[in-house]
Amino acid sequence: MIPAIRGTHDILPGEVEKWRWVERTAQALCERYGYAEVRTPIIEREELFAKGTGETTDIVQKEMYAFTDKGGERVTLRPEATPSMVRAYVEHNLEQALPAAKLYAIGPMFRYERPQKGRYRQFHQLDVEVFGINDPAVDAEVIDLAWALVAALRIPQAELVINSVGCATCRPKFHEALLAALGQDLPKLCADCQRRAATNPLRIYDCKVEADQPIIDRLPHAVDYLCEPCATHFAAVRAQLDAWALPWRLSHRLVRGLDYYTRTTFEILGQTLGAQNALLGGGRYDGLVRTLGGPDRTGIGFAAGLERLVLALPDDAPIEAGARAFVVAIGEEGRGEALTLLRELREAGLAAQMELEARGVRAQMKRADRLAARVTIIVGGDELARGEVTLRDMGTGDQRAVPRAEAVSAVREALAGPMVGAGS
Ligand code: HAM
Fold it and tell me: Which run of H or E residues covers position 24?
């Protein structure tokens, strides 16, 4: 046996229904909010993420599946979608091509992280991005879409946290204040923090090392160092969230682990996920389109981890159990007619199955049970000689004879009715 690669997963029947529900809910919501789907390649030039995600991030420094391809080009499996979405927006001049540059994508991402619950090496994201709209209303819309997704999935006890990390004008002053406040304490922090202090002091707030926390708790907050335009922008975002009654909480520690963020950052945290508690995260990135060779356009978005959404679903999530019909054949004569009926049902657009190896009726009924069939159609014996088949409701056990010629419409009717014994 050659096992799957560590940190990757097969999504099997039984689980895949949850995935489909999450994906369909996400797609339906994105379309309702006016976002258009984009599908970009899984493989990109390494440079796109070095420049986009940022040289000082853990992702670029330690986690990329990057290699030299047979043509000598440095390429990587994408660790996140945002730089790819920016590339596609710039490369295809989507600003001109689309009525609004509001985009979403769903697909796998790759990071060489230490796997644990909610953290994998191949994982999947719903990624949402808006380009070229600077108004705080778009920050609020994107946050509202994220919140609506978690609500539509009925994920309990989700918490919305927000922050503002300022812009190129006010960030340097905040960095100065951070370093000044650290002063004598800097050498006491962990090696990662020492590195952060030199490259991107804001990121010290990302530190999870227990011993560092008392020092970090005393540090100044980004929101107190915002320049006037950033402060006004953030106030307007909060006011709109309040107007829509979204329950946000300000978190000074929410600086996010990627280099491109400016102004608004946000996450939605789940309560059932353990250490990896961010269901989704995002924010504004006003310089990124330009950094990646595009026009001077603002950007904002978020990405949700589909694995984490699936893990956080409530037990009673309304996952569709696809209505099913099962055809049972009695004897050889019954089998030929049953196969004919099976095909008729499928042609009529109904989900129908049958035991394809000839077996006894008991074994066939057992299989129908395992497949959670709602109706079985028993074909053979005296009924067939009379031009009839038997329809059995698997929920109630009720049986009745139906003319063979009306079998398809009778099954359709039975499947359309309320499901018996499912509490609905
Ligand atoms: P991120 O915070 O790196 O942001 O990832 C977003 C979400 O992806 C996380 O909240 C989590 O749910 C999921 N995720 C990340 N890494 C893993 C992993 N190893 N295993 C499972 N799930 C994971 C971004 O990726 C940004 N591109 C978000 C964004 C879009 N910002 C603006 N636009």
Answer: helix 16-32
Q: Compute φ and ψ for 304, nearest 5 degrees.
A: -110, 135
CA–CA separation, 145 and 404 (whole Å): 50
What's the CA-to-centroid distance between 281 and ligand 1, angstroms? 6
Which tokens is 408 given? 């398809």
Quick check: CB of 155 below 6 Å from ligand 1? no
Cβ of 302 closer than 6 Å to ligand 1, yes or no, is yes
Alpha-carbon span 221 to 205, nearest angstrom: 10
Which two three-digit tokens encode residue 140?
């609020």
Contact (CB, 8 A) for 21 and 319:
yes
Q: Among the atoms of ligand 1, which is closest to the Cα of residue 120?
A: 20
pLDDT digits (tens, 9 = 90+) for 230-248: 999 999 999 999 999 999 9
Q: What percent of the chain has pLDDT over 90?
A: 86
Q: What does the pLDDT look like over 12-37, one tens digit per residue?
A: 988 999 999 999 999 999 999 999 99
Q: Kindly state if the Cβ of 305 falls inside 6 Å of ligand 1.
A: yes
DSSP 88-153: HHHHTTHHHHSSS-EEEEEEEEE-----BTTB-SEEEEEEEEEES--SHHHHHHHHHHHHHHHHHT
Rounded distance from Cα 82 to ligand 1 centre (Å): 10
The answer to whether the CB of 110 is under 6 A from ligand 1 is no
C-beta 49 within 6 A of ligand 1: no
Cβ of 299 closer than 6 Å to ligand 1, yes or no, is: no
